[in-house]
Specification:
The protein is α/β, with parallel strands linked by helices. It is 40% helix and 22% strand.
Length: 303
């Protein structure tokens, strides 16, 4: 039995007229009649009682009509879902992200992607860049918001955000109460809070280079992996920190954010995925993320 036989039968059963059914199916009447007889012969039953004036369903025909409609509807649904999956409109996508992305590109990208592709199921996992790279290589996530550099030939990446470093100071520091931008060299004697280099070597090197350009090496007295933890330690007056500008979206009591007078290197957030991965949902996610992020992005410091 072929699907076209069922489609022919359902059309004739609904029209109860071979001429109208043939016209609706865009075929001539004799082949349609022959296909229905072929179906009847295969099933060994009479589906339609035919006279010169009328066509009527038999009891067997009535029984087949409901099942045939159900089968054809399921087939049509399967075709629709297959096509939607090929366009990335449905499926599963596992996404990793660094904490910094939670304060800049991640919320807007997720919002726009969910709006455009509501049937794609997203699984989110916060982790450091090095952990995300391991997860990408192992297939545990499909795409990640990471910090460069990404020195893995089997991964592709795309920069989606560039932003400057700013200083985070405890409110009680005299420099925090001064108006205007901060001259970084004034922090040469201050204790710094920084993250261990293996977790984000690119950003770590940006911070150290920025300080060296100001004439000193930062005296690191506390380390923390997550950016929000670093800001919390600044709030606790354990030191100062240089952080990406978007962290100003984390309004932490006891912290003052200051732009740097001499400027600073631009830090980046990249999107990374496995090279050659043909997952349709990944393809459209990268497209939406690159369009939505609209790099470069500027962050306004709170007044």
């Amino acid at each position: 039995m072929e699907l076209r036989h069922l489609r022919y039968f359902v059309t004739v059963a609904e029209e109860l007229h071979f001429g109208r059914a043939a016209k609706k199916l865009h075929i001539s009447q004799p082949p349609l009649s022959m296909q229905i007889r072929t179906l009847e012969a295969e099933l060994g039953v009479t589906l339609l009682n035919r006279t010169q004036r009328s066509v009527a369903l038999t009891q067997s025909g009535n029984a087949l009509l409901g099942e045939a409609r159900h089968i054809l509807a399921r087939v049509d649904q399967a075709v629709l879902m297959t096509r939607r999956a090929s366009r990335g409109e449905i499926g599963e996508l596992a996404i990793g992200f660094i904490s910094v992305a939670d304060y800049n590109v991640l919320p807007v990208v997720l919002r726009e992607f969910r709006r455009a592709f509501p049937l794609v199921n997203l699984t989110l996992r916060e982790s450091t860049t090095d952990a995300q790279i391991r997860d990408l290589l192992a297939g545990r996530i499909d795409v990640g918001f990471v910090l460069p550099p990404i020195n893995e030939p089997s991964l592709e990446s795309l920069p989606i955000l560039r932003e400057p470093l700013i200083a985070a100071l405890p409110d009680k520091y005299p420099l925090a109460r001064k108006a205007g931008k901060l001259a970084l060299e004034k922090l040469k004697d201050a204790p710094f809070i920084l993250f261990p280099r293996p977790y984000a070597p690119g950003l770590y090197d940006d911070v150290v280079s920025c300080c060296k350009a100001a004439g000193f090496s930062p005296r690191v007295e506390q380390e923390a992996i997550q950016m929000q933890t670093i800001v919390s330690l600044v709030s606790a007056e354990l030191g100062v920190a240089l952080i990406p500008a978007s962290l100003t979206n984390l309004r932490r009591t006891g912290v003052t954010y200051k732009e740097l007078k001499a400027g600073s290197p631009l830090t980046e957030v990249h999107l990374a995925w496995r090279r050659g991965d043909d997952l349709p949902a990944l393809r459209v996610f990268v497209y939406v993320a690159s369009r939505t992020a609209r790099m470069p992005r500027k962050t306004r410091l709170p007044a």
